[in-house]
Amino acid sequence: MKNIFTTLVIILYGSTFAQEKCAYQGMLVDSLNLPIARASITAFDEKNESSGYTFSDNYGEFKLEMPCPAKYELEIEHLSHASLVKSIDLKKNLREKITLKKDVVSLDAVVAQGRIPIQVKGDTIEYDAASFASGNEENLEQILKKLPGLVVENGKIYYQGKEINSIKVEGREIFGGNQKLISKNLPADAVDKIQLNKKFRANPFANSLQDDEQPELNIVLKEDKKNLSFGNLTLGGDAQKHYDVQSKLFYFSRKTDATLISDFNTYGNEVFSTQDYYQFSGGYSDFAEEGGESSLRSSIGDIGYSSGGNAARMQNHLGALHLGYIPNQRLTVSAFAMATDNETEYSSRSWRYYPEFTQKDVNHNLNKIFSFISRIKMDYSAQNGANIKYCVNFNHQNSESLTDASTFLNDEKTASVFRNSAGERDNYAINQKLSYIKKVGDDDNIGFYFSHIYQKVNPNLKLISTEAPFQQWLNLSKKDNQFQLNQKRELMANHLYFLTIYNHLITNLSNIRIKAGINYSKENLNNTIFDYTTAIKNKNTPTTSNFDFNEYYLDATYTRKWGGLKVDAGLGTHYFKANNVVKNMQNTDLNKIMWLPHLSANYEISPSNRIYFNYTKDYSVPNISDWSPAYEITSYYNLYTGNPGLNLSQQNRVSLGYFYSNYFKFINLGVNTSYSWSHDNIRNGGYYNPTAQFTSSYNVPDVEKQMAANIHFSKRFSKNYNLRLNANLSNSDFYSFNNGSFIKASSFSHGYNLRNSIKSNEKIEIDFGTRLNFNDFKNEIRQNKFTSLSPYIESAFVPSKNWLIEVDYSFPNTWTDGKKINTNHNLKASLRIKPAKKTYVKLIAGNIFGNNLIVNNGTNDFYTYLNETEILGRYFIAQVRYKF
């Protein structure tokens, strides 16, 4: 880590340290000798690399400090004056007066040449979208990826290591501020400015020392997009099995806004993911953003969505509507509703390499998922200076899954077991949240937050097998040469959260924050397993569990600022009581007082340099499923039971980071490191045999440790070349419970992504690089090494404003223990033409080499695995898009 960091510093500053710096000062005036303010001045050295960037002040003055002696080329631009390119030979400190001529070309040309790429206005950084766009961008996300200081990964946006959880358009929240839905659907040609607020506060009355500062993005639309409907409609498909229908409609006015998005396709264009559902559904994560805390482990899991293209047959449907209304300056009302339907069908093969035997499954899979999500939100600013917010979510999710599995043991040529499993699951959730925040006097503010969450989940399963499933634990009868096992399960949960936060500004440099909260949770679990239609009765089934959880906490944090250093030191005390009553089984009671210290420090060396340190301690309490000794069938080869003797787990985490951002030299560097250790960590482990697994939850008897680090570096070396590097590293020491004993294990992984971006004459843009990942796993029984390498190139060619050609190629390779198990050539190409003013025609060829499988590998507590999944083959799509 130290060597990597040192190398980056040398790259950034080596040439600077080797030379003396000279000051080049200038004064910009017009033909009447009047000063020209807010002109941009960029310096390039003889290698065409950026050496400095600044603006002229209100008196036309500017100053650049650059290594000397050296020759430079200055590019001076202003909205109402002709651009000027000036060569200078900088041997010593130099001052000159420079005259700019009035621009006499058309307004369009002036706007194209005179835009200011970046402006810093207090805590807000404003990017000019056109200055970073190349003309081939279709949505907001493709512009965000090119902005210095921002990192976009897997649809998420980060600034200085912090995830940006709020994106607004024209200062308004759309679709709950969901990053992905906005960034992937807002048309790029509608965006004028992108404003990054580095110190957004959810509390409108927060003072400068409160620690709830988070970055936020606001998208400013072009003037011709305001008070008018805009967007696009797309219709596409092929002559056989594929279709693609999209609508993206937007409307913004002074009081109202509306957005309608729909996307129906069958060729792997991902429109919704598990992460999207989690963010939209709200739940406790929304309450935690206000400062709420809860130590209870979640008992209701999410349904996993298939990722784009990872199925031989698929249908992805999404429809979403957002409405916003501002009747007056005090009240804002917004609502949205969204429905998604996802269906995938594919065949797969999986190998599970246990220490004693190998198990191979040949599967045919069909999955259907339907989701409906809705939200109504109101924000009211009362006349007494208070802010009141109310939000209610209703979510419903239904999934159906069918799997036909043939299992082979070791080198068998004929399957030993045939199994058919059919699962159905319904999730319902209603989440209400109310907050009242008020400023008290000049130095105090207080907030009250209340949340209620009701959840219900019904996961049912029907399993048919030629061999008795889980015969060591369940006694089943045979009928018509087969066994049938059915499970009916119902889990209901009610959660109440109350929180109050009081802030007092002691002095301009110190603050005290008092936080108090109460959590109540009540959960009920009913589970019955059937042999055909007869309920199986033993000590683990049928089961009825009733779970109660109460938690009370008080936390005090003192904040002090010394110059650029800000320190938050605090201590919290938590008392919880958990009780799980299981009918005719072992009951569990647990209560304890916990003391949780926390410390954070942020040192702003300069506006471009920041170092932070953070330490936290927390704990997690087992949920109703963790504690209930009831049998639960989680898959056709896994049976789970809870552990009434399970104790809480405790975690400690220390993190340290450094960030450097120079927006005018287009340099961005971020280094994050963390170290965590846990006591009594909760893990799943158990027993296995050639046809089944039996798992339960256990507390690890020793300390588990994890170290992680990641580095992000980007720099625009010249007008036409940009470099980005991401590197991550992690090392874990942990335990697994394997066939009756705890086994110590370790995992060391590191990955790299190098991306080069080249532009040429604003007509060609090429991004190329490679992704490289290593993972070494080792325990007392086995050791495995996994490696993946994927060089890639993404290119766009704009021969004219009416033509766009894009070609993407990647070459993924995968190795296990030094043996290559997969290699592919992936090629995708598209041609977009503009035959009419608002009409685009696009031809898309995907998976041109016709790869039919994706391969992934890895390991878990029991075995090493290798999966081969059938995917969508070669396809050709024609699209017609109308923009308005």
TrEMBL record:
Alphabetical list of InterPro entries matching this protein: CarboxyPept-like_regulatory (IPR008969), OMP_b-brl_3 (IPR041700)
Pfam (any one) = OMP_b-brl_3
Membrane-crossing segments per the record: none
Task: Name all Outer membrane protein beta-barrel domain ranges.
Answer: 508-794
Q: List the protein's name.
A: Outer membrane protein beta-barrel domain-containing protein
Q: Which organism is it from?
A: Candidatus Ornithobacterium hominis
Q: What is the lineage of its organism?
A: Bacteria, Pseudomonadati, Bacteroidota, Flavobacteriia, Flavobacteriales
